[in-house]
């Protein structure tokens, strides 16, 4: 059951990428407005669900400050970085930074990855490079790369913070509420024209309310039972799922290279999850 829920969560994360591409690349919304609407809709739905269940929201705690800031850092860095980075390179920087940050912070806490998990992570990340195969990396915009690295650090901290979250729904709702003011500043920082069509609003709401809000709440509910290294490694499957979603929903095509890379990613994840005797 846990494996199914983890797969469902990774699929929700991948759906965020697809919805973002449909809105931004389709000209239905600018990146900043999409991010702000995404967090706003997520906050509204999560708060409504918490109130319906009679779950109190607690805002004035150290964990809440860390979670909210980390979420805002991820959302803002992600949106601003993709103004100058292509999708493949951005995903590599993001998930590479997430891996390194979680591994490093876990090691400092005495819960670093074992040899098998490191081997699985290397195989999976190598497969991810094969799948995404970023072009023009030598001309990478330094600011865009730094912003995406900051987003990766933010998501890694957000993930680790969720391991001690007493209530997944209430914690996620409070995080979204506190992250909203910071994320609302993103459209002002993009230095580009604001553009949101009704289709863009619908895509942002779907991403915020369902695949982000509910997806992140599900992730928080799973994290206490997952080792930090495993939480980092399984997320390498997200770009692969996003590629498959692009084939099914956006009519994109894949070749043998992508298939081979996907096999490496999933094989590396499977190796890291395999129980040692």
From TrEMBL:
It comes from the Bacteria. The chain crosses the membrane at residues 38-59, 66-85, 91-111, 118-137, 143-161, 168-189, 201-219, 226-248, 254-273. Its main location: membrane. Residues 143-273 form the EamA domain. Keywords: Membrane, Transmembrane, Transmembrane helix. SUPFAM superfamilies: Multidrug resistance efflux transporter EmrE (SSF103481). One of its GO terms (cellular component) is membrane. This is EamA family transporter. It comes from Pseudooceanicola lipolyticus. The lineage of its organism: Bacteria, Pseudomonadati, Pseudomonadota, Alphaproteobacteria, Rhodobacterales.
């Amino acid at each position: 059951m846990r494996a199914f829920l983890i797969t469902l969560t990774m699929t929700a994360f991948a759906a965020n990428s697809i919805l973002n591409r449909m809105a931004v690349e389709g000209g239905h919304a600018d990146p900043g407005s999409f991010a702000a609407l995404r967090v706003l809709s997520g906050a509204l739905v999560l708060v409504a669900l918490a109130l319906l269940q009679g779950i109190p929201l607690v805002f004035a705690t150290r964990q809440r400050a860390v979670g909210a800031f980390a979420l805002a850092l991820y959302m803002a860095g992600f949106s601003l970085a993709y103004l100058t980075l292509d999708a493949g390179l951005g995903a590599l920087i993001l998930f590479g930074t997430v891996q390194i940050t979680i591994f490093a912070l876990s090691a400092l806490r005495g819960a670093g990855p074992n040899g098998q998990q490191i081997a699985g992570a290397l195989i999976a990340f190598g497969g991810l490079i094969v799948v995404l195969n970023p072009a023009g990396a030598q001309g990478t915009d330094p600011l865009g790369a730094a912003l995406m690295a900051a987003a990766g650090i933010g998501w890694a901290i957000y993930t680790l913070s969720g391991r001690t979250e007493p209530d997944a729904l209430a914690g996620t709702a409070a995080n979204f509420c506190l992250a909203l003011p910071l994320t609302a500043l993103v459209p002002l920082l993009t230095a580009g024209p604001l553009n949101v069509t009704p289709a863009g609003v619908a895509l942002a709401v779907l991403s915020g309310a369902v695949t982000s809000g509910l997806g992140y709440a599900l992730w928080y509910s799973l994290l206490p039972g997952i080792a930090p290294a495993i939480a980092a490694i399984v997320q390498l499957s997200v770009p692969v799922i996003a590629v498959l979603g692009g084939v099914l929903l956006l009519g994109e095509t894949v070749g043998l290279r992508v298939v081979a890379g996907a096999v490496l990613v999933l094989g590396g994840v499977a190796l890291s999850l395999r129980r040692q005797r």
